[in-house]
Amino acid sequence: MIKLFRFIKPYRWLVIAVLLLIFLQTLSDLFLPTLMADIVDVGIVNGDTPYILKIGSFMLLVAAGGVLCSVTASFLSSRVSAGFGQRLRSMVFSHVTNFSLQEFDKIGTASLITRTTNDITQVQQVLNMMLRMMVMAPLMCIGGIIMAVSKDAKLSLVLVVVIPVLIAVIAFFATKGMPLFKAIQVKLDKLNLVLRENLTGIRVIRSFNRIDREKQRFDEANLDLANTSVKVNRLMASLMPTMMLVLNLSTIAIIWFGGIRIDHGHMQVGALMAFIQYAMQIMFSLLMVTMIFVMIPRAAASAVRINEVLEMDPDIKDGEQLQETNSKRGYVEFRDVTFSYPGAEKPALSNISFQARPGEVTAIIGGTGSGKTTLISLIPRFYDVDSGCVLVDGVDVRKMSQASLRERIGFVPQKAVLFTGTIAENIRYGKEDATDAEIRHAAEIAQATEFISEMKDGFDSVIAQGGMNVSGGQKQRLSIARALVRRPEIYVFDDSFSALDFKTDAKLRAALKEETGDSTVMIVAQRVSTVMDADRIIVLDEGKIAGIGTHRELMDTCNVYREIVSSQLSEEEIA
To answer: What is the pLDDT of residue 365?
Structure first.
């Protein structure tokens, strides 16, 4: 957790101010019992009313100063902890955005959400508590011991017995609680995972009538978390009664032995009252430490999880010596590329070599699991190859900056993703400074104008979260428009026409051919009708190239392609 405290640096002056205010507040708390003892032992015993009023007024002034310091310290510590949480959250989010897909797969989306929200909140709350209590507790404990000894050294022997007992109790509960708090965070991850899967897959769950099974899964994860939470809360709930029992027994012992010393004339009543107050301050300072120890184990577990994210170096990052591209524009080449997913038994792609040139359409087709999406994911460098190289504009993508590489690519993913906002904002996502005319033109090419015009607010119509208020085909067309408005060197369409009917598919490809005449176009498709007119068709089979050529050439030379064609087209259509 200490590693995370570097994010407090911008607020160091506020932290110093908080510490100073807490120091002044602690001084006021330590002086009040002494002033009270003077009023009892001097003013009341001697019947000196002016002295009582004088010391009483000074007590009120000291108490008011302590209250002012306490309120100000609380306000400033809240500002520091809130600022710390904001900076840490921003840092984690910024760091996560640099992750490759491998890091996302390794940690998990649900866990990343939990770490960015719940875990950071835990650390933020503990910081707020530590700024006030972690400093006040030792000051009050040490100061209380000094003042108690100054009142009566022999009576202070009671504290010599009590304090080790309290420390042992705190240590016992902290040791038992730490593993349970760690387990809670892991089980919270699991609960979030189950909940996220249920929310995102609700259509599949309902279509297969698996609602009861998913309820059972959620209840199991929820009950597991609840049982662990109950266990740790039961443990921590027993801490306070134990502490109060020790505290009350200590008070009884102080009054008992203090009464004896008063009876022997070794101590005054006011001094005993002040001693009891100092003993209470010492005990309560240890109670503060206890409260901190209740929070620290959970925050420590959260801090470890946050550090795991911050210390995880992305596998894919810009090289130290970046190269500039040559005169080739939109030129894509794969040279003997082999790629394996982490932990896979065999490569997803093996010995892939081909070229895609500007002004040409390169189509990729193959069976399910043949590596089509994996292949095009290597172009924007979502993954790095195991061997060989991928070149864009004549330069290995590993020697280009990721920003420069991806600026050249208009990527339409297999799963169309839309963001909350208007249609215009979603299309403008591809180019921030796109004009209304450019947005409208991109929508026309993507065959999206018709359904947009039928919506109430046109391009200002709001897209719901995840694009839930538009159909699958409309999502795909808006995703295509988002790539078109960018006017990149390279267009990559990953099975982006699957939800379109044949008529819209044909019209869209015809419009694309005119729009992308100077760019390199790469299309991944399942339908033969989508790729038949491509300048080059690459047939993949189990991660290897089974054939490259035009439709006619592949019909003569590639058995895999012929099987795909015959499974989709009739003999008349093939002829």
So the answer is: 92
| Domains delineated in the chain | 2-310 (1.20.1560.10), 332-574 (3.40.50.300)
Confidence of residue 367 (pLDDT cuts 50, 70, 90): confident
Cα–Cα distance list, 304 to 2, 123, 178, 377 (Å): 10, 10, 12, 32
- Per-residue model confidence (pLDDT) at position 339: 92
Q: Give me 463's structure tokens.
A: 């897209």
Sheet hosting strand 520-524, strand order edge to edge: 409-412, 490-494, 520-524, 361-366, 536-541, 544-549
- Give me the amino acid identity at 248: N
Rounded Cα distance, 296 and 292, in Å: 6
Cα(282)–Cα(286) distance, rounded to whole angstroms? 6
**Six-digit token string for 523:** 């299309």
Q: What tens digit of pLDDT does each residue of 455-491 get?
A: 888 888 888 877 788 888 888 889 989 998 988 889 9
- Write b or e for each residue in 350-375: b if 16 or more Cβ atoms lie within 10 A of its Cβ, otherwise e: bebebebebeebbbbbbbeebbbbbb
Report the b/e string of 231-267 with b at 16+ CB within 10 A. ebeeebeebeebbeebbeebbebbeebbeebeeeeeb
Residue located via tokens 């008349």: 572
Q: What is the pLDDT of residue 1?
A: 58
CA atoms of 474 and 493, how far apart (whole Å): 15
Task: Report the alpha-carbon distance of residue 479 to residue 536 in Å, rounded.
Answer: 24
The model's pLDDT over 533-562, given as tens digits with 9 standing for 90+, comes to: 888 999 998 889 999 998 888 888 889 888
Nearest to 253 by CA among 347, 158, 321, 344: 158
Note the pLDDT of residue 126. 85
340 pLDDT exceeds 70?
yes
CB distance 321 to 399 below 8 Å: yes
Question: In angstroms, how far is CA 338 from the centroid of its own chain?
Answer: 33
Cβ 438 vs Cβ 429: under 8 Å? no
